Amino acid sequence: MGPHGKDDAGRGPRRAAFLDRDGVLNELVLDPLSGAGESPLEVEEVRLVAGAAAAARRLAEAGFILICVSNQPAAAKGRVPLEQLLAVHERVRELLAREGVALAAWRLCPHHPRGVVAELSGPCSCRKPAPGMLLDAAGAAGVALGASWMVGDTDADVAAGRAAGCRTLLIEHPGSAHKRTGGAPAPDLRAGDLAGGVELLLRGQPQKAESSLASPTGSS
Question: Hey, which CATH number is domain 15-202, 3.10.270.10, 3.30.530.20, 3.40.50.1820, 3.40.50.1000?
C-alpha cells in the first residue's frame, strides 16, 4: 500500500465499498415491538439477501475492499446483551464466507442517544448519520474516500456517506422504507437490492482486482 490512498503499484486510489449490513447483506426481521423491519437479534434469524453475496464478490473483483459499517443499538436499549449482537454479526460473516465473500474490515456502533445502558448511551461520533465508522475504517485501511461508495438502505447511510466524502448508493429494501423519509441528501444511485445496485455502480468503473487490507480492529 503506497501513500495517499494509492496501491503499491501506483495504479490509482484504493477504493472501498462501505456496506451497511441489515437490509443490504442480510434480510431484516419483523420487530415484535414496532412491527417494522429491523436487525436480527438471534443467530437463528440471520439470512442473507438473495444475490447479495454474489454482488459483494463482484465489488471485490472490481477492486473495492469490502467494509461493513452498521448501527446496532439493541444492547444500548437493553433488549439483548452486546455479546449476542456480536454473535449475530459473526453469523453474517460466516454465511458470507460460505459464499466466498470476506469482509476486509467491519465497524459496529452499539450506541444509542436514548439508551438505557449507561455505557452505551448518549451521543457518539460513530452512529450513522455521523461518518465516524467510515472515517475510522478508511484511515486504518488507507482508503481514498472520494473514490469509495457508501451502500445502505436508509437516509442515515446516505447522510453518513456524503459526510465522509463518498458517493452513495441507496438500496430501497421494502422492509426499511420507514427509515427513508427524505431527510438525507439525494443518493448518487438507487436500486432495489445490492445485486441491482452493483450492476449500476460498476458501469463506467475501472475493473481491477486488488487485494484486501484488514484494519487492526473489527477485522476478519
Answer: 3.40.50.1000
| pLDDT tens track for 183-199 | 889 999 999 999 999 99
What is the sign, positive or negative, of the torsion defined by CA atoms of 149, 175, 70, 179? Answer: positive
d(CA 58, CA 196): 12
0.85 exceeded by pTM = yes
Tens-place pLDDT, residues 157-177: 999 999 999 999 999 999 999
Q: Give the residue numbers marked as catalytic.
A: 20, 22
Asked whether the beta carbons of 134 and 105 are under 8 A apart, the reply is no
DSSP letter string, 16-45: EEEE--BTTTB--EE-TTT-SEE---SGGG
